[in-house]
Write a structure and sequence with these properties.
Layout: H1 2-13, H2 36-42, E1 49-51, E2 57-62, H3 65-76, H4 80-93, E3 101-104, H5 116-123, E4 132-134, H6 146-152, E5 157-159, H7 162-165, E6 171-178, H8 182-193, E7 198-206, H9 209-213
Parallel strand pairs: 2-7, 3-6, 6-7
Antiparallel strand pairs: 1-2, 4-5
């Protein structure tokens, strides 16, 4: 009771701030949402982005402009409020099946690994399990073309055996960015080899087609 009253008093006394730019919050949505200025700058489609190739996927927006800059900052810094805001928007735009189990794609780097997939999965509020593990380190995918990415990831993942976890019939992979899809396809191959069924991938951003062709 006292905590509820204290929280209400803080809401009245402390001016809400935008979780992304830390400016005055002017949005009719809950205070965890970005301000209208940030929403306009990010240019996020109201229905998000969806596709079927190279596997079924859904994303908050295109990996370009202000959204790309923000995601790069989130990888380097612990901007928890900004990430929470983006994940909430992602959750609002896509309704996952009730049977969905989220599996974050692990990073191959032992130091300075990418924490976003796991934090995104936990923020979506669905059952999350670490079924995937990296068998080996690989070259950085950033400067590789599509064929090199596919070769680079052969045998890179291993999924937990069924006798330890049991089979999940509706696995959704979670990553921060979808580019060529090579990483997601390698992860799906490992999971399906272990008996799990991968329904698709959910992520914050999808690289534009022109950049994928390069």
């Amino acid at each position: 009771m006292h905590r509820a009253l204290l929280s209400f008093a803080q809401t009245l006394l402390i001016e809400p701030r935008c979780p992304i730019c830390d400016g005055p919050w002017d949005n009719p949505l809950p205070p965890t949402a970005p301000c209208t200025t940030c929403l306009d700058a990010l240019a996020l489609p109201c229905q998000g982005l969806k596709g079927l190739q190279p596997l079924p996927w859904c994303a908050l927006g295109s990996y370009a402009g202000p959204l790309r800059q923000l995601l790069l900052k989130l990888r380097q810094q612990r901007q928890g409020k900004a990430l929470v805001a983006l994940v909430q928007l992602l959750s609002d735009r896509f309704t996952l099946p009730a049977t969905a189990v989220l599996v974050p794609i692990p990073s191959w780097k032992r130091q300075r690994s990418n924490p976003l997939p796991q934090r995104i999965a936990l923020g979506l509020g669905r059952p999350t399990t670490e079924l995937l593990h990296r068998n080996r380190a690989g070259l950085s995918q950033h400067h590789l073309n599509k064929r090199q990415r596919e070769t680079n990831l052969i045998g890179a993942f291993q999924a937990c055996p069924l006798d330890r976890q049991g089979a999940h019939c509706s696995v959704w992979l979670v990553d921060d960015i979808l580019t060529t899809g090579s990483t997601a396809l390698a992860a799906r191959e490992a999971l399906e080899a272990a008996g799990h069924r991968v329904a698709g991938l959910i992520c914050l951003a999808r690289t534009p087609a022109r950049e994928r062709r390069r």
